[in-house]
Design a protein that fits this description.
This protein has 173 residues and is mainly α. The protein has 2 domains: 1-83, Serine Threonine Protein Phosphatase 5, Tetratricopeptide repeat (Alpha Horseshoe), CATH 1.25.40; 106-173, Serine Threonine Protein Phosphatase 5, Tetratricopeptide repeat. The chain is 80% helix and 0% strand. Mean pLDDT is 87; it is low at 6-13.
């Protein structure tokens, strides 16, 4: 279902047709049909050039097709529309890493972490960028932060278990 097919349908309001279009694009991306998604997005460019979703999904498709420079441009346009989109900053950092520009990747990860300090992927790719810059200790600290977000430290789990036991004991007395 392309946007052109939706636009010819008088019963579908404008906002709904864009929502349906982006749902279809997301479905194509999740099924690894990147070429089809990109083709449909490119066909819709005249109607969607000011939509964050258009540029974000286009960047996603291009990244998965290993067209990193074009993906960077799409994510850059998406971020001009919606600068607080953390996932776009992280995706852009990934592109910079593939293009062997770890300084830019680090800057994008740091920007993402300013917006969401506990973003696991931002910490992970920050570690990759630092590792590529030869800053190994900082890289491993970033990897640790990413892992800590995924799996809370043993101390946090222990505190949680102790609190749970004390809560249950308090209810029993």
């Amino acid at each position: 279902m392309s946007l052109a097919n939706l636009s010819s349908s008088p019963e579908v309001p404008n906002r709904s047709r864009f929502r349906l279009f982006y749902q279809k694009i997301l479905q194509l991306l999740s099924h690894h049909q990147y070429e089809i998604a990109l083709s449909q997005l490119n066909d819709a460019l005249p109607q969607c050039s000011d939509h964050f979703e258009f540029w974000y999904y286009r960047g996603d498709a291009l990244t998965n097709l290993a067209q990193y420079s074009q993906a960077l441009e799409s994510f850059g346009t998406a971020l001009k529309i919606q600068a607080e989109a953390v996932e776009a900053w992280v995706f852009r950092a990934v592109c910079w890493i593939y293009l062997e520009n770890p300084k830019e990747a680090l800057a994008d990860c740091d920007r993402a972490l300013q917006l969401v300090p506990h973003h696991q992927q931002a910490w992970f790719f920050r570690g990759v960028a630092l590792h590529r810059l030869g800053r190994y200790r900082e890289a491993y600290a970033s990897y640790d932060r990413a892992l800590d977000i995924q799996q809370p430290s043993i101390w946090r789990r222990l505190v949680y278990l102790i609190q749970t036991v004390l809560d249950r004991l308090g209810r029993l007395s």
